[in-house]
Structure formats: structure tokens, C-alpha cells
Structures
1.
Amino acid sequence: MSSPALARHPEDNNVPAAIAEAGPVPAVTPPVAPPTFGTIALRWYRLNQGRLRATAVGIISLLAFLLVWHLLTTYRVVFFVRFTNVPSPLAVYASFTKAIHDPKFLMHVVLSCRRIFIGFSLAAIVGVPLGLVMGRFKLVHEIVFPVAEVLRPIPAIAWVPMAIMLWPTNEQSIVFITFLGSFFPILVNTLHGMSLVDPVLVRAAQCLGARERSIFREVYFPASLPHIFTGLTVGMGVAWVSLIAAEMISGQYGIGYFTWEAYSLVQYADIALGMIAIGVLGLGSSVLIRGAGHLVMPWRSTR
Amino acid sequence: MSEILAGEPKGHIEVRNFSLSYDSIEGPVQAVTDTQIHVQPGEFVSIVGPSGCGKSTLLNAVAGFLKPTTGVVTVDGERVNGPSAERGMVFQQYSLFPWKTVRENVEFGLKMRGMARSQRERAARTLLGLAGLEAFEKHYPEKLSGGMKQRVGIVRALATGPKVLLLDEPFGALDAQTRVIMQQILTNMWQRLKISVLFVTHDIDEAIFLSDRVYCMTARPGSIKAEIPIPLERPRQQSMMMSSEFLALRRGLMSLIREESLKAMGGEISDMGMQGLNIELHGHSLADVI
């Protein structure tokens, strides 16, 4: 582009200097020898020291937990709580190696995951847009909010009898309960995010020519995303809580049912195995959501 | 691009019989009353006044965010009926979209206008180059310093080729050195683009240094107390700020504002019921007494 009008005025001479100063312009350094592998490794270590330490401490802490568990069960400690019947870590490991070759156990896991996936996805598909619309349009908020506020405090477990009446199959009622558990955290957090959108950003968009729809897509939605993801994370946690409760009460399959069945059949190692499986699955799903959050909000993960 | 950078001066702002009040439980509160201002095409005009005098209110009305209670705001003869890309605005808090990179921020107005991606990318790169920001096009605003953010803010407002640039204390949050640089960048851009500028500030030096004309507002309810032409020649140099001409203008404006600030503060003091403070004016202005 040619721009003859760009000739600078004499007093501008300090402008480029100041710009240069503001930016990370590499300083002029005398030439140095290329770094050896050793120095690079050392630098990497120094930069990641904190993270390495956290990982190391984390591993030690987990090992310590296993050790205490092992000791408590080996010596069958009775001190207020009774460890007489609690399976040892080794027994749980044995039943784990057996279970991973058992298609029935895998089916329990897969079914639970499927219920979570359907229930949670439905909650997100309904909850996020509803929250966005409620946050933008007062009337929708005024209509939906009172109903939501009355239904919200009802724990998903309390919905079990009603869900069984509402839905023709057990499977559907369990998915419904999972949906309910995650729906309200997602809705409430989306609403909260919408209420915090900086009105100045909306005005900035308006005087750049943005109309209602663009403002919604380009300002309200991305501005609410961090809170939407908080809602999704919390919702995922509650989804697992609700799912396991529903499976224990009315299920025929699923990891919650597996755990409860193990108790009925006096297979104590399987109780712990079921619990650990639930923990790992819950952890995995929240890691997935966090990862999705980083992908969707690159401007936040550079912090 | 050429449409942004060349052409005749444009953007004749006219505010006539303007007043703005809002409702409160005690009845309507007058924020700005009986105000007339105008900005000639290509002119740089500042509004100064004590805090709370309604200078930002006035600017927001020109932007189209606020509707006047009485009176009209026109730009090039057309009545202002809401915000539009014809009137670019720069905010004190930068107001960059944190989820957009520097270049995407600058592109925003062009995107809203429906310009094709490759075309607006090129336009944004050119504009960022003018502001010395091409190296930062992929950065998110959070990573930038205040001065850089505000440069992006200015470039973003200019990208759509507005007739008028409105700035609401744009450099208020910057340190003194950055402020001076930003003033020069703004002057450059204004001279190249030949658009009119309405600039709200509480910094008297800044107003004199930048403007062709300065409006001084009274304390709330705000109205125009004085209109001061600034006859300093252009291009303006930093050294001019020590000239007797500059200092005389400064002194004049300073006393005008001081008077109004004290009036505003006096109101607050009596509101708080501080009976002990008795200021007798005897025909002097407060500025002379204190």
C-alpha cells in the first residue's frame, strides 16, 4: 500500500524508539556458542522445577495412601472404624486384573459412560443456550427463572421415583436423572457468566457496527465461556453423583449397580474396585472438559 | 484502504439545545443542560471540565449510546439515532475483546461490515503497521502493555473509516511518558485521516496540546462555560508546552476548571452538613480565595 501521507513529522522521532521499547525486541547480544544438550536440559529443569516437584510429591502422596491402606487392612485395625472386612489394595488389584478380562465388567463401565455422555450432552445442549437466552432477554428470564429456582434445590436422587414413573424404561429414567443433575449447574453458571459481561465491550461492538445477532455471537457468548465451562465442570461432577445414585437404586447395569451388587454378593474387593473405577472415570471426564476448555478458549490458556 | 487514508475532511458534528436528564427517586436529575457544541470537519476539539460534569455523558450522546432529553445531535446533517460505525469510539478501559487477537480486534468492524476475510486481514495488517504493532498481531490483548492496548483500541476504531473519532479519556490510565507518545500517535493519525475528533479529558495540558479548540464545561448540571480556541501552530512540539502562549492558555483554562471543581466540591461539603466551613465569596471567584 502506498501512503504518501505517512511522512512523519520531525517531533515523531521518538515514537519508533518508544514502540521498540514497548515490545520484546531482542537485545543485541554478543554471539554465543550454541547451547549443549546439558545446558538445555538444565534450563528445562529450571523452568519446570515447580511442576516436576508437584508431580513427584503427588506420586509420593498416592503411594503413601496405598501404603496406609495396606497396613490398615493387613493388621485389621479396629479404631472407631473397622477395617476387618475392608479388602487390601492387593486384593483389589487382583480383582481388577480379573475384571478387565471380564466383558461383563467392561459392559458396566461402557453403559455408565454412555449414560453420562447422553445425559450430560443433553444438559449442555439445553442448559447453555437457555442460559444465554435468559441472560439476554429479560422476559425469558422472568418466566423460566422462578421454575428453575424451585426445581434446582431438589437433589437428583429425589427424582428417582418420579423419573421411573415418567419414563417407560429404566435406561431412560437413569439418563434423565443424570441430565437433571448436570443441567442446573450448567444453567446457573451460564446465567452468571451472562450477567458479568462487561457492558463497555457491548458498546465497543455496537460502535463498530455490530448488530444484535453479532453481539450475541461475538461478545456475549465468548465473554460467558469461562463461566459456561465452570458450569460444565461442576455439572459433570454432579452428573456422576446422580448417575451412581440412580444406578444403585434402579439400575441393572452400570458401575454404580456393579458396586452395589458386589456388596450384596459379599465380594468386598469388587466394592473398592467399583469405587475406584467411578473415581477414575469422574477424573477422566473432568480432564476432558478442561481440555476442551483450553481448546475453545485459547486466550485464557496462555496465562 | 485508500478510502480510509485519503479524501476531504469529514465529520461535522453539531449538538444543539442539548440537555440530558435521568429519573431518580427524587425526581429527574439534570446531567447536562442547555449545551451547544460543534466540531468542524477535520477539527480536533476537546471537552474538559470537573469530574462528574457530564462530559462523558455528552460524548456518549454523540456516540449514540444515550438519547438526549431535549435537543439534537447531528453528524454531517444526519441525526444520531444510535451507535454506528460512522462514529468510532475509544474507551478509557481500552475495551478490547480479550478473546480476539490484536488483529481480530482490528478486523472486527470490517467483519461486521461483511468484508471478506483475506481483504480485512490485509487492511488490519496495514493499520497495525501504522501503529507499530505488526509484530503483535497474533497476541491476545492481555499480553500487551496499556499503551499498546490503547493503540489497538484507536486503530480498531479507525479501521472502518469513521467520519468522527470519539475518545473518552483514552490516556487516563497511562503513565506520563506513554501518554506523550500516545498523544503524538493520535495527532499523526488524525492529520493523515482528516477526520474530526471529539476528545474528552480532564488533563488540561493534553487538551491544549492536542486541540484546535477546547470546550470547558461547568459543574453538574453540565453546560458549556467557555470555548477556547487554541491558536498554537502545527505541527506541535513538546517544547511548545513551555511557551508563554501555552502557559497563558493553561492558566486560563486551569482557573476556569478550578472554579467549577470547587463549586462541585462546595456542593458536596454542604450536603454533608459541614456547617463549620463558611466560605464568603464577596464577589470573588473561589479560585481567588483559596
2.
Amino acid sequence: MECVGLCDVVLNLGVRNQELARFLASLIGVLLVSGVPLLTVIILILAERKIAARIQDRIGPNRVGPYGLLQTVADLLKLLGKEDITPTAADRILYNAAPIISFGSVVLLWAVIPFMYWNTPEGAANAVVGVNLEIGALFFVAIASLGTLAIMTAGWASNNKYALLGAFRVVALLVSYEIPLVFALVVPVMFAGSMSLVDIVEAQSHMWFVFMAPLAAILFFISSQAETGRAPFDLIEAESELIAGFNIEYSGMKFGMFFAAEFLHVFTNGILMAVLFFGGYLGFFYKAIPPLGFLWLGLKGSLIYFVFLWLRNTVPRLRIDQVMNFNWFFLVPVSIINIMVTSLILKVMQEMGYAPTVFAESSLIGILPLTIVMLLKDAIIIGFILGRLGQEGRKARIEATHAEESLAAAAAGD
Amino acid sequence: MGDASFSLIVAFTVFGILTLGGALGVILNRNLFRGTIWLMISLFGVAGHFVLLSAPFLAAVQVLVYIGAIAILFTFAVMLTRSLTQITDRFTRLWWNLGGAIVLFVVLVGAVIWPVWGGFTPGDDILFANVMSTTDLGIALVDRGSDLRQGFVLPFEVASLLLTAAMIGAIVIAREADDEEKGKRG
Amino acid sequence: MSVLNEWAFVGVFLLLAPIFPILPMGAAWLFRPSKPNVIKNQTYECGVETIGDTWVQFRVQYYIYGLVFLVFDVEMVLLFPWAVAYNQLDLFAFGAGFLFIFLLADALIYAWKKDVLVWK
């Protein structure tokens, strides 16, 4: 039984029992890996508030500490002192379990994210990563679906009509948007020939997947925005319609956990998108100075996170029927067509010898023809879609004008 | 196996308790939603067993499909029924059902254990001899099959047809239910 | 066996993950005031006492979405091994996967034509 990496270090520290050493190594590893999201979430809450404020032409928190840097700490202390009201009618066990599942599942997602390059001995993961699972991408989707269950549980356990209605709508939305999300995820998996996130990053060492599959990246971006329940898909917190949605009965730290889970989920999606489409830790000197890779990953993730926020603070909320129809009549068909066309072109080009079969072992020149063809294909599809949308919009506008005219005529006739 | 057997046994016990405890929870409580949660705990235990059997892909599928989709579907179905969330009637003929359940349980357990009785000892390395990577799985899934290896392309396509048929059937039934509901209201 | 080593890490993570939210919640439990009363603990709906059972009957629409999602979920799961092995497949095997997607796209078109996916 091999004992590599951290386990070896622990063994050398004087722990005799190998099994104990392995357990301790896992424990330390988990604490290290989960430390990243737990620390970032504190910064995220401030960043989100500051950015939202700037977009809305406000200053944002600026009283606590220099530039309001300690605002989150103050919020945390305030939340600690908040009374926690559990409604008598609630189902106590499930009511308390829901925020735990919600936050825990988001932290768990970080287990498979590769942080930086590391030259390790034969057979081990070539990166600093919690665990390089063979099914990493699928693990991510599976654990993320636990969050859906948490929302459902919260809504049901609150025993509140608005909470239940909000939970039902949100869950219907979340499961619907999971389809284009996963279909978009299939594309990088297909390119890399592996579900391991480390392999996916390595396969991008010559060309980021965003250049080869921009459409998949856009689909993934839109559906992850919906998965986190952010505007324009923020039916989760439709204050005017559902008072607050599934978390209406939650207060104090339990509400805080839902809140933190949402913020962290957005950033996690940004990081995941960086890993899947923007080359993860790849960047200048990522091999020579591995910590630089960590910086690249953080930078890319933060940039995508910023676009998430930007979108959230710019567009208005959609109605539930618009959201659902957008998914079923637009995203799902487009994502299916995208997979079919992409797989067809890739196979044809591989058979003709214009495309490599193992991307990581190819070169920039070897991968260039495929990139150009893929880019063209996506440009054509996107152009076609935009054309159709323009037509539909024009038709709707003409109809609206006609309706107005006939109304005006009717009014004049009276 | 050597020194890993202890943690394996611990893990196996924990997952076993989750699976069986969850299953007991499903049948012993009278609230359908809580029953769904118990069922998910039970299925999560099964996912753990898949991992212990070195089939992580199946474990992820178990979590994704059962906890991610079936649980949601069950809750929607529970909420479709009017007042079944709070069942208070006691079932009649309880003893008769219990007897039937025990007989069925014994038969099923026997059917599982009989073919492999004495074939292996717990913690045997044979369990981990044929670990299949997802790539192999994918190749086998769409392979015609030859003398050397098994191919599953026909079942794969049949599965696709089955899924299509399931969806069409579900839509037809659900539409009927929807029409009935509307008829009642109107 | 190395597969199990990896998953041991996931197992430890799974044990620790709930502790992260439990810690602040536990701390809040220590510090916060707790003065519940009957009025405060009522269900918060719209100012007046809540009427009837919360767990009311929902529309069949949700169930249809759930079903369609389940079908696609199973499809996605079967598609992943195909995508992983994609680079090593010959044309026949590729076509098998292609047909698989095509058949399910059919199901989507059927659902589309029958108008069940429209939120009403």
C-alpha cells in the first residue's frame, strides 16, 4: 500500500501506524483544501457588496475598518447575537439540517478542484488537488445536486406556504437548468477524454477550451448563473411575489449559512468555469513557480465571478414562465445540438488526421486547425441563433404595435 | 488487504447502517416527505457501498440520479397527492403483510447469497481485481463486442429507446391527469 | 486499491463538511438571546394567522418537469462514459453514441410538440 504526498510527511513526523498516518494526512488535506473556500467567502461577501454598490452608483460599506474591510467581521458578530426563531409548526430536524447540507455541499465541491501544478512521482496527480478523482466532473454535478435537495428540505420543513411555493419553483428551475449545464460539461470532458479535472486542465495546455467551444462555455455560464439562483434567474428571492422564497422562516446564523452558501457557490462556479474552459492554473511560469498557478486560477475565477456579479446587478428579474421557457425551448435544444455537432466535427477531423486524439500531447500547431473549425462552427450557430432572435423580436414588436393601434382605433370608435 | 481492512470494515459498517437504517425509516414513519429523506439516506449508503466496491462511477450516478433527480421527483409526486403527507390510518392486515415481507426478504437474501456462498471471504482482494476505468466502461458501452471482450451497444441503444418511451408515456399519463384536474375545476 | 485511498479523502471531507456550518451555528447558539413566545413563533405569512394545511396539493406541471429531468439525467449519465472514451472510439462506436443522443432529442421534440414543457 503506497503512502505518498502528505501521508509520507506525516509518517516521517513519527506516526508509526500507516493507517493512522493516512487518516491524519486526509484530515490535514481536507482542512487545507476547505480553508480556501472558507477564507474566500469572507472576502466574497464584501467584494459582492462593494461591486454591487459601484454598479448601482453607491459607495457600499465603508465605515467598519479601512475601506469597510472589516464589514463582514462585523456582520458575522452581529449574526452571532441574532435571536434564532424557529417556528412552532416547523419540522425541527429537517429545518436545522437544511442549512448544514446547503453550505456543506458547496464546501465539498472544492475537494476536486486542482489548485496548482506539481511535479509528482509517476502515477500520482500532476497537480495540487484535494483528490484527483477519475470522475471529478461528475462528482461536481452530483454534489451540487445535494444543494437542490437542501432547498427542497428547507421549504418543506418551514411549514410555510410561501416557503414551500418558493422552494418548489426554485427546485423546478434548478433541475431544469441542470440539463444544459451538464450537456455543456460533456464538451470539455469529450475534448480531454477524462472526467478528472486535472486531466481537463492538462488537456488545455496548448489551447484553452473556451476558444474551441465558446458556445459550450456560454451555455455553462448561463446555466450556472441560474443554478446559483442569481438575477435574472433569482426566483429564489422574489421578495415581492414570494416574500423571500424558501428561506423565509430562517433567521440568525441559519439564514447566514444559506446566504454564505449562495455566495460561495457563485465563486465556486467561477472557479469551475476557469478550470473547465479557461485553463485552470495554466498561465505564465506555472510550472517553474507553482504558487503562481494558484494565482492564475484565482485571477481567472475572480474575473468570471465579476461577470456573474455584473450580470446579476444589471439585468432585471424574469418571470417564472419566461425562465422555464428560456431553458426548455432555448438552452436545452441548443446544448443538445451543440454536443451533436461538436462531436461530429471532432470525430471527422480526427479520422482525417487534422485533429489530435490526445490534446495534452499535441502542440499549438497541431491543435490550431481544430480550434479554427470549432470557432467557425460556434460562430455560425451563434449567428444563426442571434438572427432568429432578432426576427422573433421584430415580429413581437410588430404585433405589439398592431395591438396598440387596434386598441387606439377601438377607443376612438367609442 | 493488510492494514486497510480496519477502516474498510468501519466504512462498510457505517454505510450498512445508513442503508438499512434509512430503509427502516422509510417504512416506519408516516410522513411521505420524511420518508423520501430516509430513502435518500438509504440510497446514499448504497452509493458508499459502490465506492467500497471500487465502482466510483456508479456511486456518482447513484447520488446524481437518485438524490438529485428521484428525490425531487418523489417530492413533486408527494405534493401531487392531496393529503397523503399525513397518513394517520393504521393499515389493516398488518400481520399478514409482515409475514409476506419476511418470506420475500428471506427468498431475496437467499437468492443473492446462494450463488456466491463460500466463493470469497470478506475483505478478499478478488473484489478489487477487476477495477474498470470509466474509459473502459465507455468503450465497452458502445462496442459491438467480439470474442475478446463484451460489447453493450445494443443494450445502450435500447436504453435510449426505453428512456424515450418512458418520457412519452409519462407525458401522456400526466396530460390525462392534467386534463382531469382541469375538468374538475371547470 | 488506490481508488479507495482517494475516496478515503472524500469520506473524511464528507465527515468534516457538515462541521463547517455547524460551528458558526453552534457559536450563535451560545451567544444569541432566546426568548421565544407563541406569537413570535407563529408561521410568518402575511400578518394574520395561517389558515389550513401548508402541504397543499401542487400542480401536475412540476411533476412533468421532474420526469423529463429524470429522463435527461439518466441520459447524461450514460453519455459521460461515451464522452470519456470518445478519443479512442471508431466511427461505429461514435455513431452509437450519436444515435443515442438523437433518440433522446426526439423525445424532447415530442414533449415540445405536445406543449407539456410550457409553464402554464
